[in-house]
């Protein structure tokens, strides 16, 4: 498996526990991600308590991955904290976002342009109540394979959402199975997937009130967070980010 090769110099238990951590991350149902201005002060206070493995150089690669997989979606969106590289990375991310928009993708940004969020409606990926990707799902996932060419250029956070049809246990299990299906697809088609982290959100974060067929359809979605990784920060520090 790719993760074993990546951890060739790390203790065996770190390799063995990788997918266990992945499953653990999927079972957690975190709130948040995108924050409005009313939450800004609270976010700043919470930021101070978030461990940033990029600035904590004492961590091994295995320890860093373990921390990322054990962290909430909110925490993994807040890190890494960008310092001198901030403007270069914001400009780079803006270029990537514009390319996605030009390709017809539904995209927004957060953290003042440092993080890209793409949204894919689940109707494009799955049949109703199904957890197996449709044959046509690749069309909607392929635009994001290119972000996984270089190890830790990006941390890709996959957040799967549902409407509120069914019990909480049902929607939690549904989004867990679906996000794992998407993770497996990326593992099969992308070069570097160690930093692809799945989250099952259940019905906890609707975009719209679940009072119509249209609104429920919009609430069933996959959000792909493209967060700068260590390789991007290093390239920005050296002035080597590509156009």
UniProtKB/TrEMBL annotation:
<dbReference type="InterPro" id="IPR036737">
    <property type="entry name" value="OmpA-like_sf"/>
</dbReference>
<keyword id="KW-0472">Membrane</keyword>
<feature type="domain" description="OmpA-like">
    <location>
        <begin position="113"/>
        <end position="230"/>
    </location>
</feature>
<dbReference type="InterPro" id="IPR006665">
    <property type="entry name" value="OmpA-like"/>
</dbReference>
<dbReference type="Pfam" id="PF00691">
    <property type="entry name" value="OmpA"/>
</dbReference>
<protein>
    <submittedName>
        <fullName>OmpA family protein</fullName>
    </submittedName>
</protein>
<dbReference type="GO" id="GO:0016020">
    <property type="term" value="C:membrane"/>
</dbReference>
<dbReference type="InterPro" id="IPR050330">
    <property type="entry name" value="Bact_OuterMem_StrucFunc"/>
</dbReference>
């Amino acid at each position: 498996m790719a993760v074993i090769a990546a951890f060739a110099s790390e203790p065996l238990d770190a390799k063995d526990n990788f997918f266990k951590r992945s499953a653990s991350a999927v079972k957690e149902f975190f709130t948040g991600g995108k924050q409005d201005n009313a939450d800004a002060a609270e976010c700043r206070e919470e930021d101070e308590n978030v461990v940033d493995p990029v600035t904590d150089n004492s961590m091994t690669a295995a320890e860093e991955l373990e921390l990322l997989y054990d962290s909430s979606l909110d925490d993994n969106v807040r890190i890494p904290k960008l310092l001198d590289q901030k403007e270069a990375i914001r400009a780079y991310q803006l270029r990537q976002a514009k390319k996605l928009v030009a390709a017809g993708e539904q995209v927004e940004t957060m953290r003042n342009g440092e993080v890209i969020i793409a949204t894919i409606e689940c109707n494009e990926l799955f049949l109703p109540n199904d957890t197996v990707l449709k044959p046509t799902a690749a069309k909607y996932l392929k635009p994001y394979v290119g972000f996984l060419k270089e190890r830790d250029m990006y941390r890709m956070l996959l957040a799967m959402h549902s409407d509120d049809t069914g019990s909480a246990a049902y929607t939690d299990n549904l989004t867990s199975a679906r996000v794992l299906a998407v993770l497996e697809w990326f593992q099969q088609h992308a070069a570097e997937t160690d930093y692809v982290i799945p989250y099952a959100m259940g019905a906890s974060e609707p975009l719209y009130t679940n009072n119509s067929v249209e609104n429920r359809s919009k609430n069933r979605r996959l959000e792909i967070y493209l967060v700068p990784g260590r390789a991007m920060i290093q390239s920005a520090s050296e002035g080597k980010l590509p156009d």
